[in-house]
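Exercise 7b. Backbone tokens:
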């Protein structure tokens, strides 16, 4: 197995291992832009391979206990520590069960790790969301589940909706002295249907991803709730709010779902035709997941 070798990190002058998140934030405040946090180290390795200089100070979060937890939050949802690896998340029976859309999203990016399979076992969910292009494919699954990002800084904690966490390509709302500590995932509504689809990248078309949640009324005739999230078709992962408005409160008819898919395509910054196709497929899958394909008269 290959791992981050500090002999490769020319320019690193200090390597620090805080024991608490508060200590980590204090060190980030002390060293400012000279410092970078690491966990699995795969993101840093990638930046160096792209020609970026090593930071002067490395702050390794791996010594902080419980940041890799994957555990229920009572009856409300699931806590995913920022240092939970993609490997452990995908294999978690809890995630594969009630939150299977997250597992499917992780499975969708496995091809990115083929050249360096070791990286899959070390890459953390926090590092993925904060610093890699893969966040565009995993975030949609988390967003439709109403996930929130828990952040700690020198002045304490704050929690924000995950869809507000991203500010640009490989950019987040985090300040230099803040760290992402966990993702709080809400339970999907009872009997809601979930779907995740990712397209294959082509020579002139990058891969795109769609996650959808759809809940019908007890009679299976009307859409009570719908969430659609798009990945890798804009600078950040986004909710397709306009498409959701087209579908919510309407009858569960294929023409309505197709109209919503067309509107979703218009919300993408690029790859509109791909998004239209993926959203249409994801909505149909969500219906089937919720009540079976007889709902559309098949």
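Sequence design result:
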């Amino acid at each position: 197995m290959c791992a981050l070798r500090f002999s490769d990190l020319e320019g690193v002058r200090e390597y620090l291992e805080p024991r608490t998140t508060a200590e980590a934030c204090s060190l980030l405040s002390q060293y400012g832009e000279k410092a970078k946090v690491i966990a699995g180290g795969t993101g840093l390795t990638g930046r160096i391979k792209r020609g970026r200089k090593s930071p002067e100070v490395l702050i390794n979060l791996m010594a902080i206990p419980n940041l890799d937890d994957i555990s229920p939050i009572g009856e409300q949802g699931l806590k995913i520590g920022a240092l939970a690896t993609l490997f452990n998340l995908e294999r978690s029976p809890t995630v594969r069960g009630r939150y299977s859309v997250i597992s499917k999203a992780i499975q969708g990016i496995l091809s990115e790790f083929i050249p360096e399979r070791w990286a899959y076992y070390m890459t953390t969910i926090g590092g993925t969301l904060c610093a890699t292009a893969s966040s565009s494919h995993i975030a949609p699954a988390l967003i439709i589940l109403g996930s929130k990002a828990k952040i700690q800084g020198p002045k304490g904690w704050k929690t924000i909706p995950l869809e507000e966490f991203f500010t640009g390509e490989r950019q987040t709302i985090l300040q230099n002295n803040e760290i992402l500590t966990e993702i709080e995932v809400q339970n999907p509504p009872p009997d809601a249907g979930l779907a995740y689809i990712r397209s294959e990248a082509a020579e002139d078309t990058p891969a795109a991803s769609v996650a959808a949640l759809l809940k019908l009324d007890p009679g299976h005739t009307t859409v009570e709730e719908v969430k659609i999230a798009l990945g890798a078709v804009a600078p950040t992962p986004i909710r397709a709010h306009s498409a959701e408005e087209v579908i919510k409160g309407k009858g569960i008819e294929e023409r309505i779902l197709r109209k919503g898919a067309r509107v979703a395509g218009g919300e993408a910054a690029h790859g509109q035709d791909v998004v239209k196709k993926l959203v249409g497929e994801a909505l149909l899958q969500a219906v089937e997941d919720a009540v079976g394909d007889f709902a559309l008269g098949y």
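Instructor comment: The chain has two domains: 11-187, 193-296. Residues 19 and 64 are 5 Å apart (CA to CA).
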